[in-house]
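Q: what does this look like with NAP bound?
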Amino acid sequence: MQTILITGCSSGFGLETARYFLERGWNVIATMRSPRDVELPDSPLLRVLALDVCDAEGIRQVAESAGPIDVLVNNAGVGLLSVFEGTPMAAVRSLFETNTFGAMALTQAFLPQFTSRRSGLIVNVSSSVTLMPLPMLATYTASKAALNAFTECLALELAPFDVRVRLVLPGQSPETPFGQNARALMEAEAVRVPEPYADFASAVIQKLMGAVGPLTHARDVAEAIWRAANDPACPIRQPAGADAVAVAGSQPR
Ligand SMILES: NC(=O)c1ccc[n+]([C@@H]2O[C@H](COP(=O)([O-])OP(=O)(O)OC[C@H]3O[C@@H](n4cnc5c(N)ncnc54)[C@H](OP(=O)(O)O)[C@@H]3O)[C@@H](O)[C@H]2O)c1
């Protein structure tokens, strides 16, 4: 029986992916910053572990107590919609700590068991925003684009060990609390819109809120991670969600 460890399972894509793999008979180690009652089935296949991906000692403890795993999913992440001039460097660093360095640190903690066993898979949850430049997303996109570059270089380094590395690029998914969590970070880090950007920023936000068209569902992301885990031929970059698939399809090859 295979084992998957997923970060950021308290809500959204992580929670849905944990459920999806449990339903299909996998052992699931669902990690979250503050383990609480989330809607996960009462199953002997499930272990819930506390993990803040910015906490080096916590990562060390989880890597030790998890035991052998087959798949690591770096899903934990935070959003940020902000004009760069009004984004304090503390907010920039905080975003990179979670979205980029957190995933890198988890990867480093689990690599020894993968390379010594000569098997394993790392799936990094990035974003389709990395496929096209968008205003007010410079910091967030940079944190995920760095994750893409890291993942694609690492794939080459791990190929001789038969360890696979994959990216999942979800599109916009208002059904998760991602936006709400981004607003909390923006308040905590005193992110502001400088006056000269006021009209521009409100136009960007209105366009984003009023967007109609295909979106991404948590299920799409769980399915993409499932494919990465079960189809060795799956491409290194997988868009997840109808909007992400459309953007990826419009990219020059
Ligand atoms: N929703 C979208 O539109 C969208 C689009 C593209 C990509 N994504 C990416 O998809 C991933 C999941 O997002 P989502 O939509 O499912 O949002 P979400 O519901 O807000 O889930 C994010 C998860 O990350 C966790 N997290 C945040 N900081 C953490 C930390 N330092 N350590 C451990 N866990 C931490 C959150 O835990 P807490 O409950 O403790 O905060 C939560 O469980 C993220 O990487 C996000 O960047 C989202």
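Residues 7-8, 10-14, 32-34, 51-54, 75-79, 98, 102, 125, 127, 170, 172-173, 176-178, 181 surround NAP (CB under 6 Å). The mean pLDDT is 96.
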